[in-house]
Amino acid sequence: MTSYLHPSSQIGAGTRYGHNSVISENVKIGTNCQIGHGVVIHPDTVIGNNVRIDDNSVIGKLPMKAALSAITTEQELPPCEIGDNVLIGALAVIYRGCKLGQKMMVADMATIRENVEIGEFTIVGRGVTVENKVKVGKRCKLETESYITALSEIEDGCFIAPEVTFTNDNFLGRTKDRFKYHKGVTVKRGGRIGANVTVLPGRTIGADALVAAGSIVTKDVPARKIVMGTPAKVVRDVPEDQLLDNQ
After folding, report:
1. What is the CATH number of the domain that holds 180?
2. Which of 148, 174, 181, 206 has a 20 to 30 A CA-CA distance from 190?
3. 159-186 pLDDT, tens per residue?
4. pTM (2 d.p.)
């Protein structure tokens, strides 16, 4: 089977695409892009210049709404937008209504849902899941297999280590009251979270704060403090030479 290119799509000079790829109606792809084998690009997607998308990734996918979904809503979504010089690995899934800033990277098997905005130079690691209604700032690192729950916000310069889990439902799916209180996690500028940390719904990690590996965050973390343990408690200040402004 050869690739399918809809007549209404626009492909910039120097852009190449592999075997078995599907480029749907009204897709716009800039110059000098590399589209791998088996890539599916859904309608209206806008892709900048010098973008690389590896094999079997799906771009601009429409969301599915489960009958009992608390967060996903049926809505008209804007096209997926991918900025210049973005790298997208193999088997990644990026939904319609997602906007990716310039020079960021999405690694293999990552998923980025609808109503998500991610800033320039940010890295979304291998197998990371970014759920819907999330905003991620510039120059962040979301490391391998971290889970960013819906309704969360991560400001500029943050570090989220492997296997970190954000949560947004204190009722764990029980009672109708849960729909009133759904709230994700907020990480302020320069916040850092170590491996295997769990952050409970609605908690805020302060600017330049550090959460030690394996901790469970049950309360807001003050700015520039190091917390650790279950539940996480303040143990000392973040050293001055580790503050984001001093890098």
Report:
1. 2.160.10.10
2. 181
3. 999 999 999 998 888 888 888 888 999 9
4. 0.94
